[in-house]
């Protein structure tokens, strides 16, 4: 509960990285469709060790695992339809965090991997008048560090950083414009977003591959602020009178040694594999008509255990019933580049 409350401050391994170390990943495909959990106080774990917190006025149905065409399962959070509460009433927000990530896990990183990398995909949704604010928030045990903010009404995406910028009002949490003007995303589209915190240079970096966005910003020193929690929030915005729902997929946290994104990183974000874990037939798909030429399956010892060629289909199926139970890397070859995805065989 203490860790969840620290995130309230926000209310008020990519494979191609050299020495990248994946600390946590979740594609939500192994969970039962429906409510994430049964407790809104942040004290009892729901499916997949996800905890949910709603101070007032919410329901367990605000947090859902949902079947999504072409993706398997995704994670959704529905905001309140109310404006911000007036103190001393409890704040109007909804928060979810996967408790597998904490400072102890961060401290297992390999020497030299001093950059925290948080990546996920989210769906912008249809036009709405909801003034709710949706955030991904990284915090230490003491304070906010940074993240991303999305407003469905305006479809604007901004960085979030605990910083002390020139002309500001002192150290605090600031929205960071991702470009020379506010970044407006397309409606009804999935976007991959990446947030880095460099513990050597005290810089935050935001990348949105589909928009060719790569922005960095000086932040207040994080030398003594090891990451301890990563949360997803839906917060009541000023004048709000309508709820909004944001869907998330392919959440991953890594420790890396650089913030360089390759062509193959971008291609990997466009493919989905489901179900995952799987026991027999899996589907590999993408929504941009990228044709698959070949799939090579590699085990954790680096051995190629299966290869199959295709004729540039954008959606394919593979039978993996002949593979032993374990973790495999699926290397997907296309004319546009190569993608890598982790699959668990049951």
UniProtKB/TrEMBL annotation:
Keyword Acetylation carried by entry: no
NCBIfam families linked: Por_Secre_tail (TIGR04183)
Source species of the chain: Paenimyroides ummariense
UniProt superkingdom: Bacteria
InterPro entries: Secre_tail
Protein name listed in UniProt: Por secretion system C-terminal sorting domain-containing protein
Signal sequence extent: 1-20
Every Secretion system C-terminal sorting domain range: 273-344
Key words of the record: Signal
């Amino acid at each position: 509960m203490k860790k969840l409350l620290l995130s309230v401050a926000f209310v008020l391994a990519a494979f191609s990285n050299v020495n990248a170390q994946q600390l946590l990943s979740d594609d939500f495909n192994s969970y039962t469709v429906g409510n994430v959990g049964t407790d809104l106080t942040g004290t009892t774990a729901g499916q997949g060790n996800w905890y949910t917190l709603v101070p007032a006025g919410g329901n367990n149905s605000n947090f859902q695992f949902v079947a999504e065409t072409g993706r398997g399962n995704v994670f959704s959070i529905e905001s309140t339809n109310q404006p911000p509460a007036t103190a001393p009433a409890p704040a109007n927000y909804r928060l979810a965090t996967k408790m597998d990530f904490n400072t102890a896990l961060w401290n297992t990183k390999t020497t030299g991997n001093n950059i925290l990398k948080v990546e996920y995909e989210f769906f912008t949704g249809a036009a709405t008048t909801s003034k709710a604010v949706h955030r991904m928030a990284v915090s230490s045990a003491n304070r906010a560090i940074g993240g991303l903010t999305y407003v469905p009404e305006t479809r604007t995406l901004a960085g979030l950083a605990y910083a002390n910028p020139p002309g500001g009002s002192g150290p605090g949490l600031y929205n960071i414009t991702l470009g020379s003007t506010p970044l407006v995303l397309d409606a009804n589209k999935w976007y991959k977003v990446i947030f880095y915190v460099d513990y050597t240079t005290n810089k935050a970096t935001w990348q949105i591959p589909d928009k060719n966005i790569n922005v960095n910003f000086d932040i207040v020193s994080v030398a003594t602020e090891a990451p301890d929690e990563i949360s997803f929030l839906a917060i009541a915005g000023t004048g709000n009178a309508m709820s909004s729902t944001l869907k998330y997929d392919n959440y991953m946290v890594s420790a890396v040694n650089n913030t360089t994104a390759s062509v193959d990183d971008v291609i990997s974000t466009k493919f989905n594999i489901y179900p995952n874990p799987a026991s027999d037939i899996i589907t590999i798909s993408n929504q941009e008509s990228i044709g698959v030429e070949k799939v090579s399956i590699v085990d954790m010892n680096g051995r190629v255990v299966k290869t199959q060629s295709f004729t540039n289909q954008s959606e394919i199926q593979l039978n993996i019933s002949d593979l032993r139970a374990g973790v495999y890397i699926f290397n997907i070859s296309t004319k546009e580049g190569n993608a890598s995805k982790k699959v668990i065989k049951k």
